[in-house]
Specification:
- It is globular and about 80 Å long.
- Helix 15 runs antiparallel to helix 16.
- By secondary structure, it is an alpha/beta fold.
- The protein has a five-stranded mixed beta sheet with strand order 8-7-9-10-11. Strands 2-1-6 form a three-stranded mixed beta sheet, with helices on one face. It has a three-stranded antiparallel beta sheet with strand order 3-5-4.
């Protein structure tokens, strides 16, 4: 069988079996072929390629650019065009029809030497690829994944004393939250070359206690993030899951936001934290384009690191898109989400955050409440302040008729998330629970806060329309209608009130829409 040769070390080049040049002229066409040729199975998802080569374009434009580039490549390959395959989701090179030099560890030439593509996502990938090849001396399939991240929580055990227990409680809680969002991490209090060090100082006086937490990058000798608070009663502060949880969650959340900036030649710490934080930020904008883009980010993360957390987060992102009305809830989509959760469990059966995120999807999308409760319980045993697990457990308890416990769990997640990027999400969840429990004023307050914190968030405005109308506050309801129309251009009151497919199920099931119709029917 004839084999097409692809040179990746030095100047990119494709040649036929007889030596004729088949190299495309376009830089992005070269980059696309190089990314396929250097991948483990010569296959990449369309979303992954679009994100790497056209990250500055909208999803429709990126898809069109990819299609055009594939056509151009096939034209250039001529009679060898069949080596490039594609379908609705993936693009690949036929493995038995190509040969590359990526295994040639004796070559002194740089990987894709001189190839310049003005896209930061491509350049990040190129830098990572070159670093892995330098470290391994082998091809990508043999290169090791980014190493496990070590987080040192407090003083080394052989230097600690009983008096340090209070500091260690804070160190441990912050470390738990950070480690849960970094796939493949571990916490330690031994003397080690840690990637991250957490230090808490507590000074007690008659009037209370001052608590200072510093998260330190030991390699660069820099403080990544620090925060402090004052407690009138230190023991009560440490005993309170909510108060301690809120403080530690915000320390951890702001630290996680800053970790991707610790480049260090693409250290495991920066790589393993970067994808998750980027995806979370995109989902929690509740903007349709950004939410769609988050799926590509998580595909990339899984391609590069193959961790169950990324798959569970993708399932959660898709669920969030369904709830917002950005993704059709059909059989194929539900099957894809279910498969993501199954594979996530296979890859990371002991991962607490994976279990929490999976529980969230199981409870909210599939209404598998027993499964959700079991997964959430597993996560909460590790960290009683895990927001995803608290929400899932809350939904599960409602289904089981334990309404008081459901309310307390939701209120806890709302309190802990205050000031973090999860605040809008947790307030919306609490609003929906309060609607189910007929706590109208509390539902209004939480929906307002969610809408304020995230201007593109449609769900809280949908709740406020129905809640205000049910309270006979037609003017306030119509104000929310006008605000919603600015971000949901096809919105209509008729569809909101009468279309069973419109995403307002909680209002519908709780009777609020029936009451709202009396003041909204006939309005525009």
């Amino acid at each position: 069988m004839t084999v097409v040769r692809i040179r990746l070390r030095g100047d990119f080049c494709i040649s036929s079996p007889t030596g004729d040049a088949l190299t495309p002229r376009g830089k992005k066409a070269m980059g696309l072929l190089a990314m396929l040729a250097s991948s483990d199975n010569h296959t990449r998802s369309r979303r992954w390629l679009e994100d790497k080569l056209w990250s500055d374009r909208g999803s429709e434009q990126a898809r069109g650019s990819l299609r055009t580039t594939l056509v151009d490549i096939r034209k250039n390959l001529g009679e060898f065009a069949e080596i490039l395959g594609s379908d609705r989701t993936s693009v690949w090179l036929e493995q038995d029809r190509i040969e590359t030099d990526i295994d040639n560890t004796e070559s002194t030439r740089e990987f894709l030497e001189g190839l310049v593509i003005p896209d930061p996502e491509f350049n990040d990938w190129l830098m990572q690829q070159r670093m892995m090849l330098r470290r391994s001396g082998a091809n990508r399939s043999d290169a090791q994944l980014p190493g496990r991240v070590t987080i040192q929580c407090g003083e080394p055990w052989n230097q600690s004393s009983v008096g340090n227990a209070k500091q260690q409680i804070v160190n441990d809680q912050v470390g738990k939250i950070i480690s849960e969002f970094i796939a493949a991490s571990r916490r330690t209090i031994t003397e080690t070359n840690a990637d991250l060090v957490i230090r808490t100082s507590i000074e007690e006086e008659d009037g209370g206690a001052a608590i200072l937490v510093q998260v330190i990058d030991p390699l660069m000798d820099e403080i990544v993030h620090s925060d402090h608070c004052f407690a009138e009663d230190l023991n009560n502060f440490l005993r309170s899951q909510e108060v301690l949880g809120r403080f530690c969650w915000n320390v951890a959340d702001l630290t996680l936001e800053k970790l991707p900036g610790l480049r260090r030649d693409q250290s495991p710490l920066a790589m393993r934290s970067g994808h998750v934080q980027k995806a979370l930020r995109k989902v929690l904008t509740f903007d349709p384009v950004e939410m769609q883009s988050s799926l590509s980010v998580l595909d990339i993360a899984n391609d590069e690191m193959d961790a169950g957390l990324y798959l569970a987060l993708k399932a959660w992102a898709m669920t969030s898109m369904i709830m917002e009305g950005f993704l059709v809830e059909d059989a194929a989509t539900l099957e894809e989400i279910s498969a993501l959760l199954t594979r996530a469990e296979e890859l990371a059966p002991g991962d607490a955050m994976m279990a929490a995120v999976s529980a969230n999807v199981q409870a909210i999308l599939f209404e598998r409440h027993d499964s959700a409760v079991n997964l959430a319980r597993r996560a909460l045993r590790e960290n009683p302040n895990n927001l995803f697990a608290l929400q899932a457990m809350s939904v599960g308890r409602i289904a089981q008729g334990q309404l008081d416990q459901a309310y307390e769990l939701s209120r806890q997640s709302k309190f802990i998330s205050a000031l973090s990027k999860f605040e809008a999400m947790c307030n919306l969840h609490h609003s929906l629970l309060c609607i189910s429990l007929q706590r109208t004023e509390e539902a209004v307050a939480s929906s307002k806060l969610a809408a304020e914190r995230s201007p593109a968030y449609r769900a809280p405005r949908r709740q406020l329309i129905g809640l205000h109308a049910a309270q006979n506050r037609a003017a306030d309801s119509l104000k929310q209608v006008n605000e919603l129309k600015t971000i949901e251009t096809n919105f209509s009151i008729e569809r909101y009130l009468f279309d069973q497919s419109y995403p307002s199920n909680t209002l519908r099931k709780s009777g609020y829409l029936d009451r709202a119709r009396q003041s909204l029917v006939g309005r525009k």
